[in-house]
Inverse folding.
């Protein structure tokens, strides 16, 4: 239970960073922290104490295994996060070319 | 099997466009147009052939608790028809509009990926698969918002991408919570198991889902990204984003998850009502103050989403019918309004209402269709917006919520006021417009005329005989709540 609470705390750390930081790159990193928290949560859900890796071997008795599905989901979500991060970095670079700064308080052409 | 084609066709089209497209956009127009036309035809055929029944496609022959299934029930086929119709008109409109922005084939490839993602979200019956398709659609949407390549477009796209990623993280967190208690990802299995589990868990997962999908649907406290993103995108994309994307990813997912998976817990229905009322009134108040026509329209999207949420939150059959009816109508008239805004921007070179002049003589089709759309969104008979708002207001009265009915009437009056401002200052002002900078091509005009005709035609959905075949089966799917899956998968 403590582990789940810590996961949620990590998620909130990411959210805090997202809301308070003014640098585009730090915002992207904060999003990454949020993503890691969710991925960690998924892996922990699949974890069983003293269980084996989920691969069947011929001739061996079937032991208690960890749940393999969350691991597969985490792989998918890592790939998606990679894509989002790449897109965000590309946008941040383009913004830097236009405004010559990463500070979001300087990047304010849209308002109202 | 017709189900996977809705995802395969646009994905294949996107691939072929990138493969065949050189520097010119001819391949994009041809392949994209063919794919959009095929999808529109397929969705109508699927809708007519469905006859209120559900069809299932089991991916890779892995049966339900293990694999992913696509389900085409009346609700999904109604959404598919809506998405395909708007895509087709958007493509027709894009041909001339995007050429002006140094059009390339890539634009059409992104548009097709957007459609593939939305169709996937609408068809899938697996929570994690829903998340994946949602990300596919969002990727394309981020890139399309930034397509114009000006500073404010990058700014809007960055804001949209950050907000989109937060909402995706929240949804993934909710999926993790659901999985931890049910060890299942398919909606049918979760719907069967969840009632036996701790109700606190439903609250946790529901809260996270509400925040996540609420961000995607731009419900009021989570709305800040929408006016920037939707007003910065090229006009045909604004029409896609405001017309169908926030509904497929936001409202449809909310309906599916809260009604068909979580079984419509009353506390969340109450939350829908309150959030809907706030979005509806505050959205329209913010809209009145805008002078940029596309920002004004974007704020109206928030307000109209509020109407749909109120219909959803009532939890009655009539309320849900009103919500789905308004969802369809809003896709039609809001897309039309964005096409009008794009035509005005093309012809006059400005989006500021104060800088526009009288265009009734110069752009007769734009002026007339924008009048039709303005009357529809303000809820005046005989246009579709009147009937769907009427159904929602009647449903609110019937459900014993006169406060929300009253707010809906006030919201409608304020909408009328803000569109009188658009017509009075923008299109029908006393000052005549100067020379046109560019012609509004036939493709743009055709797209606007088609949607203006639909604005009148869709109001027929209220007529008893037609309502029973189009709206009622979809409403029945939603109102059966978690029990809907037993009809689909047997057992």
């Amino acid at each position: 239970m403590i582990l789940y609470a810590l996961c949620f705390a990590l998620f909130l750390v990411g959210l805090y960073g997202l809301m308070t930081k003014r640098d585009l790159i730090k915002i992207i990193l904060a999003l990454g922290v949020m993503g890691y928290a969710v991925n960690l949560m998924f892996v922990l859900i699949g974890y069983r104490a003293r269980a084996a890796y989920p691969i069947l071997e011929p001739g061996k008795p079937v032991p208690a295994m960890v749940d393999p599905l969350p691991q597969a989901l985490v792989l998918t979500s890592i790939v998606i996060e990679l894509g989002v991060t790449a897109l965000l970095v590309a946008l941040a670079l383009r913004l830097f070319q236009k405004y010559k700064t990463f500070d979001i308080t300087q990047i304010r052409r849209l308002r109202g | 099997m017709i189900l996977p084609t809705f995802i395969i066709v646009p994905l294949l089209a996107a691939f072929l466009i990138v493969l065949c497209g050189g520097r010119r956009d001819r391949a994009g127009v041809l392949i994209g147009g063919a794919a959009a036309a095929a999808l529109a035809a397929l969705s109508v055929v699927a809708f007519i052939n469905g006859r209120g029944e559900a069809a299932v496609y089991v991916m890779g022959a892995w049966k339900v608790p293990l694999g992913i299934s696509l389900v085409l029930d009346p609700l999904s086929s109604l959404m598919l028809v809506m998405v395909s119709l708007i895509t087709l008109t958007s493509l027709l409109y894009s041909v001339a509009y995007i050429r002006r922005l140094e059009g390339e084939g890539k634009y059409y490839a992104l548009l097709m990926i957007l459609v593939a993602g939305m169709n996937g979200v609408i068809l899938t019956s697996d929570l994690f698969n829903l998340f994946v398709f949602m990300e596919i659609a969002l990727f394309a949407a981020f890139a399309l918002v930034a397509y114009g390549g000006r500073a404010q477009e990058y700014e809007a796209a960055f804001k949209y991408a950050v907000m989109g990623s937060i909402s995706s993280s929240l949804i993934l967190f909710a999926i993790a919570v659901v999985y931890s208690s049910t060890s299942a990802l398919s909606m049918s299995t979760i719907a069967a198991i969840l009632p036996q589990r701790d109700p606190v868990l439903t609250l946790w997962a529901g809260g996270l889902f509400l925040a996540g999908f609420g961000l995607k649907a731009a419900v009021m406290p989570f709305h800040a990204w929408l006016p920037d993103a939707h007003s910065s995108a090229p006009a045909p994309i604004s029409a896609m984003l405001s017309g169908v994307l926030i509904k497929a990813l936001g409202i449809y997912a909310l309906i599916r998850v809260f009604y068909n998976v979580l079984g419509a817990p009353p506390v969340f229905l109450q939350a829908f009502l309150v959030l809907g009322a706030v979005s509806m009134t505050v959205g329209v108040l913010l809209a009145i103050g805008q002078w940029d026509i596309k920002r004004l329209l974007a704020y109206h999207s928030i307000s109209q989403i509020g109407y749909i949420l109120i219909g959803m939150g009532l939890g009655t059959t009539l309320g849900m019918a009103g919500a789905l009816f308004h969802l369809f109508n809003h896709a039609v008239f809001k897309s039309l309004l964005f096409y009008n805004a794009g035509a005005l921007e093309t012809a006059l070179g400005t989006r500021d209402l104060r800088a526009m002049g009288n265009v009734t003589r110069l752009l007769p089709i734009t002026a007339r269709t924008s009048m039709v759309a303005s009357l529809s969104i303000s809820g005046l008979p005989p246009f579709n917006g009147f009937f769907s708002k009427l159904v929602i207001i009647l449903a609110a009265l019937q459900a014993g919520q006169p406060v929300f009915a009253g707010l809906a009437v006030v919201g409608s009056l304020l909408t009328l006021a803000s569109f009188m401002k658009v017509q009075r200052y923008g299109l029908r002002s006393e000052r005549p417009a100067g020379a046109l900078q560019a012609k509004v091509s036939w493709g743009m005009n055709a797209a606007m005329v088609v949607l203006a005709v639909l604005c009148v035609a869709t109001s027929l959905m209220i007529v008893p005989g037609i309502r029973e075949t189009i709206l009622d089966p979809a409403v029945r799917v939603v109102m059966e709540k978690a029990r809907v899956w037993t009809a689909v998968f047997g057992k």
User: Anything to note?
Assistant: Chain B touches chain A at residues 128, 131-132, 135, 139, 142-143, 146, 151-152, 154-159, 161-162, 165-166, 168-169, 172-173, 176, 179-180, 183, 185, 227-228, 232, 289-290, 292, 295 (CB under 8 Å). Chain B has a mean pLDDT of 90. Chain B has 19 helices and two strands. The two ends of chain B are 23 Å apart (CA to CA).
